[in-house]
What does this fold into?
Amino acid sequence: MRLTDETISTVRMMRTPPQRPYIPRVTQRRALGPARWVDVVPVLLVAGTAVEVLVRPDLKLRTDYPLVAVAVVLALVVLPLTAQRAFPFLAPVMVWLLADGVSLAYPGIVTATFGCYLGGMISAFLLGHLSDAGRARAGLVVVVASAAFLMTNDPAATPSSLVVLPGFFAMVWLTGLTLRSRSDRAEAAEERARTAERERESAARVAVAEERARIARELHDVVAHSVSVMVLQVGAVRHRMPTDREVDRQALQDVEHVGRAALGEVRRLLGALAGESDAELAPQPGLDQLEALVDKVRGTGLAVVVHVQGEAVELPRAVDLSAYRIIQEGLTNVLKHAAARCADVTVTYGRDDLTVQVRDDGTGPASGDRPGRGLVGVGERVKIYGGSMNAGPAPGGGFLLTARLSVDGVGA
It folds into this structure.
């Protein structure tokens, strides 16, 4: 068995968390990104409110106080919005409380100023957008009560305005609440997507680890059988050797001893890796037992047809075993997921490779599904032996699993 560059690359990728396409990579922060605008807009609102008072001559008729003093006071009304990131509940509430207080000293000025009007809208929206439902509801009470109090202190207010203005700001609060609910749902959906991604990655790693452990057990049987044959042959030669060739007999005895020790080490190492006290020594199947496997599958009611193309040759034991396992996994997937009536198994012998295909006429997995744990294990097995694998919807319907195993250079 040899490890290919593709296998090494796969192991490195498993150790490095993949970049998720829905998480943007930020290389530098923009000069005026969304977070900066949250800080800039309240400052502009404060300045704009003060300038509005100074440039509107009609406001002079509503108060006997100097416009400069009125401009400063009204700017202070919306000033708490500049601290809304640090105090998301207290800052918008203070806007309304300050507006009510100013309305006592300057009746009608607050409701006549567009800057204060816009500040009230922003405050109502921010209170509705709070993540704390209790504070959001308390903010609604503040908004409605304060708006009604402002209209009560406005000499130009009409009875209908006592209902219309609080109702309008309540609608602004509701808009903030609605957007917050959508934002929460979007965040929850993104978190579920991230969790599902982590679970899929974890399942893929587990599948690869399980398949590698299974391959290790299978290779143990292949290697143990070959070494056992060599040890027995060395022992037989040693026993038949004449007694006068003691040096040669001793050398063969040393080889026999090293072979038996190597077998014991392989068994203990595999047992440690698999968490078992002893390795499984039962013979592993190959393509010579393919008909027996197909007969078992047919017993479940699935019609299976086997096709053999090319001249059958003796395969390396590891490739023979892997081809059997791939076909076994493909038929298992057909039984579990495809809802198929029949399946075709094709084994193609090439000069330097072996290709196996499992095709069914079922519905197959959804187009967005990722490979299951079984297919991930098949892919790992194929990569180890320098091959390739394709799995997906077949032309004309059904599902097609194709695996090519390299025969050239794999020891028997």
Summary: The first strand starts at residue 303 and ends at 309.
